[in-house]
Amino acid sequence: MGAQVPELVRLECSVKKYDWGKRGKDSSVARIYRSNSGEEILDDEPYAELWMGTHASGPCYVVSDGDQKLSLKDWIDQNPCVLSEKVFKHWGSNLPFLFKVLSVEKALSLQAHPDKDLASVLHKKHPDVYKDDNHKPEMALAITDFEALCSFVTLEELKDVVANVPEIIKAVGDVSLAEQVLILSREDEEKRRKHVLQSLFTKLISADRDTISELIPSLIYRLKSQSEIRELTEKEELVVRLEKQYPGDIGVLAAFLFNYVKLKPGEALFLDANEPHAYIFGECIECMATSDNVVRAGLTPKYIDVETLCSMLTYKQGFPEILKGVPSSPYTMKYSPPFNEFEVDRCHIPPNVTQSVVFPAIPGPSILIITAGKGTISSSSFSGIGISEGHTFFAPANVEITIQTDSGLDLYRAGVNSRFLEKSTTL
After folding, report:
1. d(CA 213, CA 233)
2. What is the pTM of this model?
3. Are 297 and 251 spatial neighbours (Cβ–Cβ below 8 Å)?
4. Catalytic amino acids?
């Protein structure tokens, strides 16, 4: 790498204050950002996302003794060898992954992310809305209990919704379409099942606003009345919560069509392109391909693009796979999605354990963030640098890193997917 390039680079991160974020000291993002940047937390402001990467919408900056503030992107441009030849040839000087911490107080928009072909079209057509031409597969790794809506429910559950949520059929305005859903079976061709589901979802999400403004209060009144004589289902309770956050929003009704996913700390959810989802509540680590493209259709005051969303979705049905990671050491779990751009390591060292964890040198760059606890970080040229909550580092390719603590520590590392790096090495 050259003697002038350090093996670990301290980073100052960007913060996003989206309205759905937890506020003030209730937000892990706020506490981590305060430790990372030294800025004071404002109790009445939302702190939603902490960004770590080279995306222009939320750049990181290299912490140095000088007065000049240099972005991580500019620093990598000056030192492209830190990426490794393999990574640089494939993605250039932009990191292929974007790493985040999220603190979610109320639901994010009902959304999906485009694949590469669609992202290129959308960016050319609406560059003010779709700010880059990249796809955005992503992974959410729960720090706390974490709730989300993701992918369409099974055929059996869909039939139950159509039969027992009359407001949906009223919004769709097509009794014959409801009948088509009810007579579907697993023996029907997948193409037909997807066509019927797409028709139902498209008509629902495109429903007239006046109609929806009448139906949703009626739905909530019905559910509250039924709660006096029976226990509401988890999905019904969620719908009541969503209506309080987004009164009159079509996403409240649409929530019945999606799987309600609850992650425990350490569990992860992978989201490929063109899959519908909405984060509901909790705190998580998020990693994705470097993009900020979002196609929205509900649970948001932001720009919505119903036509694009309805045409791009895969309409796959079934509960998503929940991954718990693969152990790479007694205290470290690795989460490797089927995407080249990224993977994440979760290192949890419990309190009152004196322990060292070694992250072996890999032929690709990575970013590390400490979310709790304290200890030291070392490489071959740095010995025992003190670390605590909020410390964030860029590690160049081929650098071995050692973490040590005697009081407990939580650390997450994002890097290029190992399968890509190993495959590249053998070419």
Report:
1. 23
2. 0.93
3. yes
4. 296
